[in-house]
Amino acid sequence: MVYLAAIFAVLAALLGVIAWKQRRAIASLIERRKEIVVEEHRMFSFLHGLGESLQTSKTQTQFYRYILEGAMRVVEANEGALYLVNEAGTKLVPRALSPSCPALFRIPEAEVRELDAEKLHSHLQLISLPIDDSSILGQCLADRKGLRLQNLQDHASFKEGTDERTAVPAMVAPLYFGDNNLGTLVVLAKPNRFSSNDFAVFRSLADQCSLALGTAQLSRKANAQRLLEGELQTAREVQRILLPDDAPPLSGFAMAGRNRAARIVSGDYHDFIPLDNNHVGVAVADVSGKGLPASLMMAMGRSVLRANAQPWLSPSKALAAVNQILFPDIREDMFISMVYLILKEDFSEVVMARAGHDPPMVYRAADRSIEELTPPGLAVGVDEGPAFERVTRDLNITLADGDTILLYTDGLNEALNAEGDEFGVDRIRETFSRYAHEGAEVVLDRLFQAAESFVGEFEQSDDMTIVVLEKTAGRDKGST
Fold first, then answer.
1. Which of 47, 68, 83, 251 could cross-link to 92 by cystine, CB 3.0-4.6 Å?
2. Averaged pLDDT score across all residues of the chain
3. Among 224, 209, 217, 233, which residue's Cα sits nearest to residue 71?
4. What is the helix (H) or strand (E) element at residue 363, kind and residue range?
């Protein structure tokens, strides 16, 4: 009986130990469950605030601070840093650093000792890192793989010049959005070591931050694009105002002109300039290049020609004045080709000068022939004056009733179809010859229609301008 009692006593003790261990395990599980619930609450709170911050932050800096401070709060870290890739994609730039964050890259120990925490913080905000594996941040981003270190100094990049403040637990996560590398997020200096659960939560948090940062980046680009498009539309409206709606009436001539931009704004222009009671200047010009720079130069060219055309009834002298004024402001890789004519009311002679522009054509009604008008001339902006004025000369053109002059920019003859073929001078000549007897407006319409039919849906890269001048019946008033 005594023996059995002893056995029962031992069993009771064992059961007691087992029950105690079970109670401890249950208590530990309950405590861990509470910790997980609290961590989940912090995580959900962070994610909720992340969306709000993305929409309400007045500056990018506020948004970056929210990401860093939220990440530190979720995993209970004391320090952290957010480095993001610059626009050029060459550097990691510090966008948010906690007040006592240590240097996360190799830095001379003597330099660290000379700086207190505040000065070190200011110093670190000025240092960008190369995107390579020379730092823990660059390696993490290059590998797109998170790191959990019980001691940050264990990483190879800290073997020399170590700041003692880096002897702390750390977690590092890459931030990327699709194929775009965005940056690196770091949290460190937790009172206890970061657990595997902390690391899982941190990586999930980094993924959500990547999504938010990528979305913000796309939103900024979209806003910038919308702003640019709005400004370009405004520029287009301004340019539309600068281009003439109709030619001024001039007895003895019918005139028509039209510009079609390949993009929102055009580097081509045409103009009809009343010079006095019985003279009108007609200009067609093409600025080298495309888009906004060309359109701005076009506006300058138009204004300068209008300001300098009236004193001269010589096109070459007017173009020389334009060249002298514009040459200092035209970039070396830009120039303006121009052709400028002066028409006199009821007079059969037209005076023309050509500054490096495509040769105009003249249709002779008497025999339905086509001639090219090829007086010599340099483009505006190529020479500061002497050579331009020596080469560029006036040409007098005598017109009979029904004769028609065609001016155009190279966007017409160089218009391409899907096969890569050009519309070409021969097609211009053929269309011009076929419809010249029907008047200036008909020629203008038919040339644009022929070019559009030729290119089809193929997108064009150059602006297109056409001006047609028809000599109509009138009385001769003598020479200019």
1. 83
2. 83
3. 209
4. strand 361-364
